Amino acid sequence: REDFSGSGMVSVEWIKTDPRRRAWAVDLDPEVFEWARARHFPKLSDDIKQRLSLEEMDVLKIPQRDLPAADVVCANNFSWQCFKLESLMQQYFQIVFDGLNAGGIFVLDIFGGQDTLAESHELISDHEITLSDGETAEFSYVYEQVKVDPGTREMDIAVSFDFSDGSSLQHAFAYQWRVWSYRDVRALLLSAGFRSVQIFKDFSDDDGHYRHGRTPVALEEWEALVRDEKYHSAYVVAFK
Question: φ and ψ at 15, to 5 degrees?
C-alpha cells in the first residue's frame, strides 16, 4: 500500500517486479488520480491495471474502507509530515500497524538538519525536455522554504519551475509540514506496536551521486552523525 501516493508510480513499479503482487495507492487528491489515468494508464498492460487499485481517501480513514492487509506500506516524499500533532501522527502510525500482515514492514523517508530550520530559496537543478511538437525546452527546479518556525519545527515549503522562455510556474507544489526527528518518530512507531525500527542514511558517493544507505544505523550513532549537518535524509523501516 502506497500512502500519499500521488499518481501511484511506486505502486506500479512494485507490481511490475512480481506477477503475484497487487498494490493499493491511497491519496486524498482526486486530481492526481485523474492525471494518472490520463497519462500513465494508457502505457500500462491490462494485467498491471487489474492489480492496481487507486483509493481516493484520507489515510486516517483507511480503517473505514476495509482495505486488505498489506505486506508493505510506504509513505514517500515526506508527505506523512503533514501531521504536525503527536496525537495525529500516533493515530496514523497505528493505522499503518493495524493494516499490515504479520511480519510486514512500513517504509518512510525523513529529513532534517540545520538548514531545514531557516527560510531559503534555492535553485536545485536544471533540466531539458522534449515537447510534444519535438522541440526542446529547458526548465529549472526551484525549492523554497517560505516560512519556518524553529520552535515548533513547522514549515511551509514550495516548489516552482522557471522556463527557458522566461515564464515561470510559481509555487506549483506547496506543503505544510513539521520536521520530525528520528528519535520522536521511532518512539511513536514503537508505541504503535512495531517490534523494531531501523534507519538507513542517504549519502553522496565519491562521484557526487546520491545514494541510499544499506546498513542500518543505531539511534545514538545516527544522532552523532547528523548533529552538525546542514541537511540530511534517510529511510526509516519499521517491522511488525
Answer: -65, -40
pTM: 0.90
Query: What distance, in Å, lies between the first and last C-alpha atoms of the chain?
Result: 15
Q: Are 17 and 89 in contact (CB under 8 A)?
A: no
| Lookup: cell for 9 | 508510480
Low-confidence ranges of the chain (pLDDT < 70): 204-210
Position 15, amino acid: I
Query: Alpha helices of 23-173 — where are they, by DSSP H?
Result: 30-39, 46-50, 62-65, 86-98
CA dihedral 220, 224, 229, 234 (to 10 degrees): -30
Here the cell at position 186 is 521511532
Q: Mind giving me the DSSP string for 59-100?
A: GGGHHHHTPPPEEEEEE-TTGGGG--SHHHHHHHHHHHHHTE
117: its cell numbers:
530550520
Maximum pairwise Cα distance, the chain = 55
Residues of the chain by 3-state class (helix, strand, coil), percent to 5: 30, 40, 30
Edge to edge, the sheet with strand 120-130 lists 120-130, 136-149, 154-163, 168-178
